[in-house]
Design goal:
With 380 residues, the protein is α/β, with parallel strands linked by helices. The protein has two domains: 191 residues, Rossmann fold (3-Layer(aba) Sandwich), CATH 3.40.50.2300; 146 residues, Rossmann fold. It is built from 14 helices and 13 strands. The strands form two sheets. Strands 6, 7, 8, 9, 10, 11, 12 and 13 form an eight-stranded mixed β-sheet that branches. Strands 2-1-3-4-5 form a five-stranded parallel β-sheet, with helices on both faces.
């Protein structure tokens, strides 16, 4: 009998520890809509962050149950999904786009559910207006500010155009922030052009821009439309130097555009897969060897998704099983210089600002590779 008891105890000790409880969180991502080219890898980063936490004890012994929804970048579908998440009593949500996130602020605030998003709209960082919204990444406004400072410091004519898609996401960096910041810095805005997220031709818009002859053009798009702009610009022989905000920039663009991507510049607050000197990239490469041994490369959007969910879940872990929305909000607002293993600059939220990161780097595509041109630059 004693031998049997010892054997049973040995088997129990050797087995994985059972989870004490389950915590529901949700993710709302575009995989099949117009921003799906960057949404799918972002969502894969979210899923891997959840799996890693669950593989390492979850949230203080509580298993994370992720409810994952592809809403195809449609605001009504996002609102419908949010209401379902709320009925299922999720305690936190990771969302996606600017239009849908801004449309749901009133629901999020009323229901007191912490809501991280992949939208870096500066409108979501003010706790007085969006008390439960949080961003891990430099805002579109901050990215625009840094890009315009570069134009001021390095340009000769100091003229600029804005190329954007006509959505909340597309307009957020430039109107009115980019217009106001250009005036403040003495940079002349000479043209604005709309290019759709899935447009395969931008010739007419670029011919209009050619008349204004901007020295620089800032782009707020994803890979697809950016590739259209660069290919058509090359065909037209335009001399304009393009600077894309974060969703335009990465090795995926090189795959789509080839040699026409050479010299393209971009702003990003996140590490790239080639940055082997960064602790977090080493960690993610080892993680992918375990979870996805068939993959040898991840776009920066995967890093973005992992980083943001890593911060969200780390805050929940700090809450020590008190997942009440007001308590989680307090926990996040107490985060100061939180280390993302170097995947971003240190993250700080305060009761006055839910903008977690305000520093970024400017990168350039050289010989088909993404190369940093600067160290972290603060937009402040």
């Amino acid at each position: 009998m004693k031998k049997i008891l010892v054997l049973v105890l040995g088997l129990l000790l050797a087995a994985p520890l059972a989870f004490a409880g389950t915590v529901k969180i949700a993710a709302l991502i575009d995989e099949s809509g117009p921003t799906g080219d960057v949404g799918k890898p972002y969502g894969e980063g979210i899923k891997d962050a959840v799996q890693w936490f669950n593989d390492n004890g979850g949230l203080n012994g509580d298993k994370i149950d992720l409810i994952y929804e592809d809403y195809a970048y449609k605001v009504p579908q996002a609102i419908s999904a949010y209401k379902r998440f709320n009925r299922e009593k999720v305690v936190a949500i990771h969302g996606w786009g600017t239009g849908d996130t801004e449309a749901m602020v009133k629901f999020i605030s009323k229901d007191k559910i912490p809501y991280f998003s992949a939208s870096y709209s500066q409108h979501l960082t003010d706790p007085a207006k969006a008390p439960y919204n949080f961003l891990v990444g430099p805002t579109y406004g901050d990215q625009t500010t840094v890009a315009l400072k570069y134009v001021k410091d390095n340009g000769k004519a100091r003229t600029v155009a804005f190329l954007y898609n006509d959505s909340g996401f597309g307009r957020a960096p430039f109107f009115p922030h980019g217009e106001d910041k250009a005036k403040e810095l003495g940079v002349k805005l000479v043209d604005t052009e709309v290019v759709g997220l899935k447009d395969l031709d931008a010739t007419s818009q670029l011919l209009n821009m050619k008349k204004a002859n901007p020295e620089f053009a800032l782009i707020q798009q994803t890979y697809m439309a950016t590739s259209t702009i660069l290919k058509d610009s090359a065909k037209l022989g335009l001399p304009t130097q393009y600077i894309g905000l974060n969703w335009t920039f990465g090795k995926k663009l090189v795959e789509l555009v080839g040699k026409d991507a050479e010299g393209f510049m971009g702003t990003s607050g996140f590490a790239f897969w080639d940055n082997d000197e960064i602790e977090g990239i080493k960690f993610l490469k080892e993680l992918n060897k375990k979870y996805h041994p068939e993959l040898t490369f991840r776009p920066v959007n995967y890093v973005q998704g992992f980083s943001s969910m890593y911060v969200l879940l780390s805050g929940m872990k700090m809450a020590n099983k008190n997942y009440d929305g007001e308590n989680l909000k307090k926990i996040y607002e107490g985060m100061k210089n939180f280390d993302t293993m170097g995947l971003t600059a240190p993250v700080t939220f305060t009761p006055e600002s839910h903008k977690g990161v305000s520093a970024l780097k400017i990168y350039k595509i050289e010989n088909g590779n993404v190369k940093p041109m600067t160290e972290f630059i603060s937009a402040q």
